[in-house]
Every structure is written in structure tokens, then in C-alpha cells.
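Quick one, probably user error.
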């Protein structure tokens, strides 16, 4: 990224640019929408494997996301080992039991009813891969001096969006899982205290009999999510 003695502005010519016509831009935007609207959160996974190379390329894409001061405050841990996945499931389900036993509150549990979720999380073992996303709250220069990262939640959130889009583009299905607390993941994967695990992404191929909640197909229309001031 940068070192302590090289923190200065050095402009270069724009290396990459897609100079579409207005018609091409609209065509590309519509094509991307058509592809992305087919993305679904999936809880039923097949045993079909996913290569490490595919996961690496999708995470490489996530790493191109914009970030505060270009500090790129993220780290991804990709897990396919059954022993680790089992430990993550056990820890997550313990937390989920407390959540569904009343910790969430009646309003939140009522909101989740149409989704059909509960404290059983088999996908955390059945998915070919789990990707744990860590947000880096601070970093260190090569000499060990600590520096602050900026807009960490926003930056890692954008990177997660890139990751989900890349995985979908690769023909895979995903589920985002956010148990809390997740500090056990730092110890499990020897990550520093500067990093906070914020999300587990289950990744794989959908089972042939996979189901999704009907409510998941209901999206707000454009006029409810957009205001135009032109």
C-alpha cells in the first residue's frame, strides 16, 4: 500500500477507462441489473466443490474496492477445512440460540418470521467455503508505528458488496452471516486485535432442492429508493 517515507501525492494518467456511448452505458447498466437481480441469499448447499482459485479471484475483486485514504482496511480469511467450519457453526449456533430465545426482542423476531430463519445453521458446515471479513481499525508501518484507518465500516461494506457481486458473477450462491460477538474468530485465525470480524459469507453451489423465502423476491420499486434532483 504505502510506507512511512512514501506518503505523498504522485499523479499518473488514468490507466483504465471505459468510454461508452450513452446507449452503451444504458445497455451495460440494464445487463448488470438483470444479472444481479438473480442473486439470492441461499441456505441450502450442495456438496459440489468450489476451487480455491475461484475464491481467490473473487477476493481479489473485493480488494479493488475504494476505501478511505486508500488504506484498504480489510482482511479476508477463506475457510474450506471441515474442522474450522464445524467450530464456527458451533460458536455461531450458541449465540443464535440466545438470540432466538428472547435476546433479540419480539419486534425483531417478528420481522424475521417471513424469512424462516432459526438457530440451526447447517450452511456454515455444508457450504464449500466460508469467508470471514475482518475490518482493520488501524494498521502499522514497516517500522511498527501505528496509523489510523479511515471510514472503516464504509470501506469494508463496499468491499463486501464487491465480493458478493463477484461470487454471484462466478455462478456461486452466498449467505451473509453476522453473529455477535465474533471475537473468537480472531483467536481461531490468529488475527490481530486491530481487526474486527464483521461478517461470515457462506459460499458454494445451491442444492438442487434449495428454497428461498417468497418475501425475498419482493423488492422496493425504484420510485421508493430513488430521489432525482436534476
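Nope, works fine. Designed sequence:
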Amino acid at each position: 500500500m504505502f510506507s512511512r517515507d512514501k506518503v505523498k501525492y504522485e499523479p499518473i494518467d488514468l490507466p483504465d477507462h471505459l468510454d461508452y456511448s450513452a446507449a452503451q452505458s444504458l445497455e451495460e447498466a440494464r445487463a448488470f441489473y438483470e444479472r444481479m437481480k438473480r442473486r439470492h441469499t441461499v441456505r441450502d448447499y450442495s456438496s459440489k466443490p468450489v476451487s480455491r482459485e475461484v475464491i481467490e479471484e473473487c477476493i481479489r475483486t473485493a480488494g479493488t474496492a475504494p476505501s478511505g485514504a486508500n488504506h484498504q482496511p480489510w482482511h479476508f480469511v477463506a475457510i474450506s477445512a471441515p474442522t474450522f467450519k464445524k467450530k464456527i457453526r458451533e460458536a455461531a449456533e450458541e449465540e443464535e440460540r440466545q438470540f432466538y430465545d428472547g435476546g433479540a426482542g419480539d419486534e425483531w423476531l417478528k420481522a424475521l418470521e417471513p424469512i424462516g430463519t432459526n438457530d440451526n445453521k447447517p450452511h456454515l458446515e455444508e457450504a464449500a467455503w466460508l469467508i470471514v471479513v475482518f475490518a482493520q481499525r488501524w494498521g502499522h508501518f514497516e517500522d511498527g508505528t501505528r496509523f489510523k484507518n479511515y471510514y472503516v465500516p464504509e470501506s469494508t461494506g463496499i468491499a463486501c458488496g464487491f465480493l458478493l457481486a463477484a461470487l454471484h458473477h462466478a455462478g456461486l450462491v452466498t449467505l451473509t452471516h453476522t453473529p455477535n460477538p465474533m471475537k473468537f474468530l480472531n483467536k481461531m485465525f490468529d488475527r490481530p486485535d486491530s481487526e474486527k470480524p464483521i461478517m461470515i459469507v457462506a459460499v458454494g453451489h445451491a442444492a438442487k432442492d434449495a428454497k428461498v423465502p417468497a418475501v425475498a423476491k419482493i423488492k422496493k420499486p425504484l420510485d421508493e429508493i430513488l430521489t432525482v434532483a436534476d
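The mean pLDDT is 94.
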